[in-house]
Amino acid sequence: MEPLGSFQMLPFAKPRMVAASEIYIQQGKVFKKIFFIKKGILRSYYITESGEEKTIFFRWEGQMAAVPECIFDQEPTRQIWQALEDCELLEIDFDLVEKMSENNFTLVRTRMGFAQKMLLESLKRVESFVLDKPEMRYQKLIAQKPEIIKRVADKHIASFIGVTPVSLSRIRKRLASQKK
């Protein structure tokens, strides 16, 4: 998918720099933007009642993202989005996308395709937790983005696959011994 879905939208995209460790999207905010990651990695996470961080998604170069509950339901997000590296983003206001879509069938199709992709990614994530063991979730992540283990802290990768950092270490040892 092209950045922001369509070249005709690029003039409306605004560049945004987010420093490593900076919170990009605050929990409790209505963030009605679609963003394209030109450089860097973002992580989306929840904080449980006990104060534990649970990573739900990573997004990296070449990917588009949005907060579905904000853009579709105008509800505040429960997620927090944090830059794990210095990030260069392109942002576009979702209200502008909707307005531009009123008379533009190509943009309507692009918007629907983006919504479908978000839905499918969420469904695959849920299915993975129901059907796959943590080791398989780890292997799928590494297959999708091999260098992520060098760019993201182990505690975030462990949280993403639903294990402790100690269990992640065991998974890596098991996989390494299988390769021998």
Strand order of the largest sheet: 1-8-3-6
* Low-confidence runs of at least 5 consecutive residues: 1-8
User: How many beta-strand segments?
Assistant: 8
Order of helices and strands: EEEEEEHEEHHHHHH
Percent range for helical residues?
A: 40-55%
* Count of runs of 4 or more consecutive helical residues: 7
Quick one: overall form?
A: elongated
Strand residue percentage: 15-25%
CATH topology label of the domain at 3-103: Jelly Rolls
CATH classification, class level of the domain at 3-103: Mainly Beta
Query: C-alpha Rg, in Å?
Result: 17 Å
Q: Would you mind describing this structure in some detail?
A:
- This protein has a domain at 3-103: Sandwich (Jelly Rolls).
- Mean pLDDT is 91; it is low at 1-8.
- It has 180 residues and is of the alpha+beta class.
- The radius of gyration is 17 Å and the shape is elongated.
- The N and C termini lie far apart (39 Å).
- The protein is built from seven helices and eight strands.
Features:
single chain; 180 residues; alpha+beta; Jelly Rolls; four-stranded antiparallel sheet; elongated; disordered N terminus
Quick structural summary:
The protein contains 7 helices and 8 strands. The termini are far apart. The chain is an alpha+beta fold.
Q: Helices and strands in order, then pairings?
A:
Layout: E1 14-18, E2 23-25, E3 33-39, E4 41-47, E5 53-60, E6 64-65, H1 68-73, E7 80-83, E8 87-93, H2 94-101, H3 105-131, H4 134-144, H5 148-151, H6 154-161, H7 165-179
Antiparallel strand pairs: 1-8, 2-7, 3-6, 3-8, 4-5, 4-7
